[in-house]
Write a structure and sequence with these properties.
With 714 residues, the chain is mostly beta strands. Among the domains are: 10-37 and 645-713; 51-98 and 536-641, Sandwich (Jelly Rolls); 385-522, Jelly Rolls (Sandwich). Helices cover 2% and strands 51% of the residues. It contains 1 helix and 61 strands. The strands form 13 sheets. It has a 6-stranded antiparallel β-barrel. Strands 4, 7, 8, 52, 55 and 57 form a 6-stranded antiparallel sheet that branches. Strands 37, 39, 43, 45, 47 and 48 form a 6-stranded antiparallel sheet that branches. A hairpin with an 8-residue loop joins strand 60 and strand 61 (705-713). The two termini are 18 Å apart.
Length: 714
C-alpha cells in the first residue's frame, strides 16, 4: 500500500493521521513506538517462565487426562508400576516397592485367603491337595485333614472359628485351620457370612441361616458378606440386603456389571466386579459407606482381561487386584487415589479373595495356568478300583507332557488294609527309561488314601514323554494302588526298594493299567507371592511412574519447554533416577536425563528447542534391590510460544477542527474489530485498538489536539 498523503504519516481504518513530532501539549514519551507483544500475558518479566512443580506424587487415577491448575494439588500422577508413593516416612515421595517373591509354588485357580482372629495365621484354600495351607512366620504347613471333596472356594474368619466352602459343602475349623469338619449337608454353597452370631450360607439357589435353621430367601447368590448388622448378597448386578426380618433389593449396579465379590473392611463394603466390553473385561470397584453406594475406580482398556476378584485391607489402605497389569494396586482410604502401582507388572489372574495382609506381609495369589499343556499323569478316578500290589516292585505309567513346566511333587492314590504299612517313593523317568528325579519317602497305611511325594527341589521338565514310577518297599500286610485295567501304557517290574531308585528301567509295556498318579505342575510364575510391606529389606530393581499431561493452563498455545530439574535423596552406588518426556500423551518417550552419581541430590537438563501443546513425564527408578532411590521433587519450566506480533504506542497530532478526527478515531475504537493500519514505512498490518486517550484544549476551532493510541497486531 502507498504511503499516506503528504503532510500525513500513517493511516488507520482508511483515515490519515500525522504524528505529534513537536509535542505541542508537552506530553511525555515518544510519538511513535513499535515493539513486540509480550508472549506471556503477565508482563512482569520475572513471570515469563511458567513452572510446573511436583513435590508430592500421590493420587494416581489411571485415567488419561489433561491437568488443570486446580488439579495440581489433588492428582500428581497418571500411572505407575513397581513404585510406592505412600511410604511411611514422607507421603507422596516416590520409591521402589518392596520385592514380591514367590513364597509358595502352587498351581491353583482358587486361592481364597483369610487371616485368623489373632492376625498371626494366614489360611489359604486350594483346588488341589492339601486343599488348605497355613502360613505363620515359621513358614507354610498343611491342614492335617479337610472334610469334603473338591475345591475350597471361600474362607471366612468369625472370631476363633473359621468357615469355608469346599465343593459346595460348608466346612469349619476351631483350631486355626489345622483340621476341618463338615457343617450341615450343603451341596450348593458358594459362600459364607457371619453376622450377629449367626452363620449364613449363600447358595446358588438361595440364602440360609444355618444357626437358626431357616431359609432367608430363594434368590440365588454369587457372593455373600456380612457388613455391620446385615447380610448382603449379590446376583448379577443386583445387591440384596437382609436385615434379620426381610430381604430387600438394596442397590442396582449399572446394567451389565457383574459382581464377583463382596469384601467388608472397616466401615466400608467393597463391591468388586467387571463389565464385558468388546474383546475384554473392564474391572470396577464400588463401595457402600454410610448407606450410600459410590464408585471407587475402574480399570480397563477394552481389549484385555481386567476382571477384579480380590481385595484386602491393611490399616488405612486396601490392596486391589490388577490382573492385566499384574499383581495388585494399593488404594489409600485416607487420602484417596492409587498410592502404589501394580506390584509385579506382568499379566496374571488373581483368584477370588486371593489377597491378604498378615503380620506386616502382603500375600498375593497368582494363577496364569497352562491352557492344558502342563499336565503330566492321570487324576481321574472314574472307573478306577483298588489294585493289590506287592512289595519291592515298581508300578509305572507313561504320560505325555505337552508343554514345559515345573514339578514340585507327585500325588498318588495308595492305601493299605487295617494294620498294614509300607514305605514308598515316586520317581520321574524320561522316555528312554533314565531316572530324572526321586521323591522323599512316604509311609503308607490304612489311614492313607492319597499321598503327596515331594521332591527336594522343583524339577523343570521340557515337553515330552515321561514315566511316573511308584516304587514300593516291603509290605506288612496288604497294599493297594488305585487304577483301572485299561487305557494305560504301564510296566510292573521287580526292584529292591532298599537299593534305591534304579538309574534305568525297562520301558517295554507289559500291561494296560492306568494308575491314578499325577505330577503337581506349576508354571514358573504361578503360586502365592509375599512382600514385606512393614519393614522391607529387599526392593524391586526397577519401577516407573508417569504424570498426567499438563498444558501449563494454556491449552491453546504452543509451549517452549525450557528445562527439567529433579530432586531426590542422596544416591548410593547402584541407584539411579531417569526422567523422560512425551509430547504425544505417552505414545513415545525421549529420555531427558539420568541422575546416577553417588551422593547426588539433584539433576537438571536444559532442553533445546522442544515445543508442544502439553508435556507428560516419566520417572524410572532403579537400584540393586537392597535399597531404593527416593524422588522428592520435579520442576519443569515452559513459556507459551505465540506468533511474533507487534504493538504500537502512537501520539497523533489532530489539527484545528479536530472534532472530525476524534470522531474517526472513536469509530475505529468502537468497532472492536480488525482494522487496517499503514505504518510510517508504508507496511500494512491488521490491528485492533487496545486503548485511546484524547488530550485537547477547549476550543477545537483555534487549538489542536493530541490522541494517545495503543494498537495491537492480530
Amino acid at each position: 500500500m502507498a504511503k499516506p498523503p503528504k503532510n500525513y504519516d500513517l493511516t488507520l481504518n482508511s483515515k490519515s493521521y500525522a504524528l505529534d513530532v513537536i509535542n505541542k501539549l508537552d506530553l511525555s514519551g515518544s510519538y511513535h513506538q513499535r515493539y513486540p507483544q509480550p508472549r506471556f500475558p503477565e508482563e512482569d518479566s520475572d513471570k515469563f517462565w511458567m513452572e510446573w512443580t511436583m513435590q508430592s506424587f500421590h493420587g494416581g487415577e489411571r485415567l488419561p487426562r489433561i491437568l488443570k491448575q486446580e488439579d495440581l494439588e489433588q492428582f500428581r500422577y497418571h500411572d505407575a508400576e513397581g513404585v510406592d508413593v505412600a511410604n511411611l516416612v514422607d507421603w507422596g515421595e516416590v520409591e521402589l516397592q518392596p520385592a514380591l517373591s514367590r513364597s509358595l509354588a502352587i498351581q491353583s485357580a482358587s486361592m481364597p485367603m483369610t487371616v485368623s482372629s489373632t492376625g498371626a495365621t494366614l489360611v489359604v484354600g486350594l483346588d488341589e491337595s492339601p486343599y488348605i495351607k497355613l502360613w505363620t512366620t515359621s513358614g507354610w504347613a498343611n491342614a492335617s485333614s479337610v472334610a469334603g471333596t473338591g475345591t475350597v472356594t471361600d474362607l471366612l474368619t468369625a472370631g476363633t472359628t473359621l468357615y469355608g466352602v469346599r465343593g459346595g459343602a460348608v466346612i469349619t475349623s476351631t483350631n486355626t485351620g489345622g483340621t476341618w469338619s463338615a457343617v450341615g449337608s450343603y451341596t450348593t454353597a458358594v459362600g459364607v457370612a457371619y453376622v450377629n452370631g449367626d452363620l449364613y450360607v449363600g447358595k446358588s439357589d438361595g440364602v440360609y441361616n444355618h444357626t437358626q435353621d431357616e431359609a432367608v430367601t430363594t434368590i440365588g447368590c454369587s457372593a455373600i458378606a456380612g457388613y455391620r448388622e446385615n447380610v448382603y448378597f449379590s446376583s448379577d448386578s443386583r445387591l440384596y440386603r437382609y436385615d434379620g426380618r426381610a430381604t430387600y433389593l438394596y442397590d442396582q449396579l449399572p446394567q451389565g456389571f457383574n459382581i464377583t465379590a463382596l469384601i467388608p473392611y472397616r466401615q466400608v463394603l467393597f463391591i468388586l466386579g467387571y463389565y464385558k466390553v468388546r474383546t475384554g473385561y473392564k474391572g470396577a470397584v464400588y463401595y457402600l459407606i454410610s448407606g450410600s453406594e459410590n464408585h471407587l475406580y475402574s480399570l480397563g482398556d477394552y481389549s484385555a482381561d481386567h476382571r477384579i476378584y480380590a481385595l484386602a485391607g491393611g490399616d488405612d489402605e486396601v490392596w486391589v487386584a490388577s490382573p492385566k497389569r499384574g499383581g495388585v494396586d494399593r488404594y489409600d482410604l485416607e487420602a484417596g487415589g492409587i498410592s502404589a502401582g501394580p506390584i509385579w507388572g506382568a499379566a496374571g489372574y488373581v483368584p477370588f479373595k486371593g489377597i491378604a495382609v498378615c503380620e506386616g506381609y502382603l500375600f498375593v495369589g497368582r494363577f496364569v495356568g497352562s491352557d492344558g499343556n502342563a499336565t503330566l499323569g492321570n487324576s481321574s478316578t472314574e472307573g478306577a478300583t483298588w489294585v493289590s500290589i506287592a512289595g519291592n516292585k515298581i508300578y509305572a505309567s507313561k504320560f505325555t507332557l505337552a508343554g514345559a513346566a515345573s514339578v514340585d511333587y507327585i500325588s498318588a492314590y495308595c492305601t493299605a488294609t487295617a494294620g498294614s504299612t509300607y514305605p514308598a517313593k515316586m520317581s520321574i523317568y524320561n522316555s528312554a527309561g533314565a531316572v530324572v528325579a526321586t521323591s522323599g519317602e512316604v509311609a503308607v497305611d490304612n489311614g492313607t488314601t492319597s499321598s503327596n511325594f515331594t521332591f527336594a527341589e522343583t524339577q523343570s521338565l521340557a515337553a515330552g514323554d515321561y514315566w511316573l514310577v511308584f516304587h514300593v518297599g516291603a509290605i506288612t500286610g496288604i497294599g493297594y494302588i488305585y487304577g483301572k485295567g485299561t487305557g494305560g501304557t504301564s510296566v510292573v517290574l521287580d526292584s529292591t526298594y532298599a537299593d534305591g531308585a534304579p538309574s534305568t528301567i525297562s520301558v517295554t509295556p507289559n500291561n494296560t493299567y492306568l494308575y491314578v498318579m499325577y505330577a503337581h505342575m506349576t508354571e514358573t510364575t504361578d503360586g502365592i507371592y509375599i512382600a514385606d510391606i512393614a519393614a522391607p529389606s529387599a526392593y524391586k530393581t526397577s519401577g516407573w511412574l508417569t504424570t498426567a499431561e499438563y498444558d501449563f493452563n494454556y491449552p491453546n498455545a504452543t509451549k517452549l519447554f525450557r528445562d527439567i530439574r529433579i530432586e531426590h535423596r542422596s544416591l548410593v552406588t547402584g541407584q539411579s533416577i531417569a526422567v523422560a518426556y512425551s509430547l504425544n500423551g505417552g505414545s513415545s518417550w525421549t529420555t531427558a536425563t539420568t541422575s546416577n552419581k553417588v551422593a547426588a541430590t539433584s539433576k537438571s537438563i536444559t532442553l533445546s528447542n522442544i515445543t508442544g501443546d502439553s508435556l507428560k513425564l516419566k520417572f524410572t527408578l532403579a537400584s540393586s534391590g537392597s535399597n531404593t532411590p527416593t524422588l522428592t521433587k520435579c520442576v519443569v519450566r515452559a513459556a507459551p510460544v505465540v506468533e511474533s506480533k507487534w504493538m504500537w504506542d502512537l501520539r497523533l497530532l489532530l489539527l484545528k477542527q479536530w472534532k472530525t478526527s476524534v470522531a474517526d478515531l472513536k469509530t475505529a475504537n468502537d468497532l472492536g474489530t480488525q482494522l487496517t493500519f499503514v505504518d510510517v514505512d508504508g507496511t500494512s498490518y491488521s490491528v485492533v485498538v487496545q486503548s485511546m486517550a484524547i488530550h485537547a484544549l477547549k476550543d477545537p476551532d483555534f487549538f489542536g489536539a493530541v490522541a494517545l493510541v495503543r494498537l495491537r497486531e492480530v
